[in-house]
């Protein structure tokens, strides 16, 4: 690992889901710093302010949000020279193949479904923890 702690930008509009996701990370004893944005527009603002979301970071992105949804957000960051290399995992309730296909076309690192609660979701959190412990970040 790079020796730096990876920041997590959670882009999620549902406050209950935010609390559940943060609790799952805590239960898995994953202590990475969390920054929360309520939609894609807020996430872009935070990412463009490097003091708010310092590198290295990883983005957990919901698909279904107001103002700017996850697909629109992915479109924006992939066209932005400073953000196009962002590592994004989609974390959503959508199981629709169309959503998966669109997201993978924008070079996401993985697609995780939120309704896999309990052990399945805890396994997903542990996967993310292992990911940023093993993968080298610039």
Task: Describe what this molecule looks like in 3D.
This protein has a single domain (7-134), classed as Response regulator (Rossmann fold, 3-Layer(aba) Sandwich). The protein is globular and about 35 Å long. It is an alpha/beta fold and 138 residues long. Helix 2 packs parallel to helix 3 (70-79). The N and C termini lie close together (10 Å). Helix 1 (15-27) links the parallel strand 1 (7-11) and strand 2. Strands 2-1-3-4-5 form a 5-stranded parallel beta sheet, with helices on both faces. The model has no long low-confidence stretch (mean pLDDT 86). It contains 5 helices and 5 strands; from the N terminus they run E-H-E-H-E-H-E-H-E-H.
Which structural category do the helix and sheet elements fall into?
alpha/beta
Q: Give the second-level CATH assignment, the architecture.
A: 3-Layer(aba) Sandwich
Tally of helical segments = 5
Mind describing the biggest β-sheet?
A: 5 strands, parallel
CATH superfamily: Response regulator
By CATH reckoning, the class would read Alpha Beta
Radius of gyration (Å): 14 Å
Task: Provide the β-strand percentage band.
Answer: 15-25%
**What percent of the residues sit in helical stretches (DSSP H or I)?**
40-55%
* Measured distance between first and last alpha carbons: 10 Å
The quaternary organization reads as single chain
Low-pLDDT runs: none
- The figure for the number of domains is 1
**What is the string of helix and strand elements?**
EHEHEHEHEH
| Strand order in the sheet with the most strands | 2-1-3-4-5
What general form does the structure show? globular
Give a count of the beta strands, DSSP E runs of length 2 or more.
Answer: 5
CATH topology: Rossmann fold
Arithmetic mean pLDDT: 86
């Amino acid at each position: 690992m790079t020796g730096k702690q990876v920041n997590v930008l959670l882009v999620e509009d549902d406050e209950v889901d935010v609390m559940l996701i943060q609790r799952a990370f805590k239960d898995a004893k994953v202590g990475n710093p969390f920054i929360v944005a309520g939609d894609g527009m807020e996430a872009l603002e935070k990412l463009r302010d490097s003091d708010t979301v310092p590198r290295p970071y990883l983005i957990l992105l919901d698909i279904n949000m107001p103002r700017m949804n996850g697909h629109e957000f992915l479109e924006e960051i992939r066209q932005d020279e400073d953000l196009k290399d962002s590592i994004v995992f989609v974390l959503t309730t959508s199981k629709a193949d169309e959503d998966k296909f669109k997201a993978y076309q924008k070079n996401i690192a993985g697609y995780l479904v939120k309704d896999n609660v309990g052990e399945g979701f805890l396994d997903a959190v542990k996967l993310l923890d292992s990911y940023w412990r093993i993968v080298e970040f610039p």
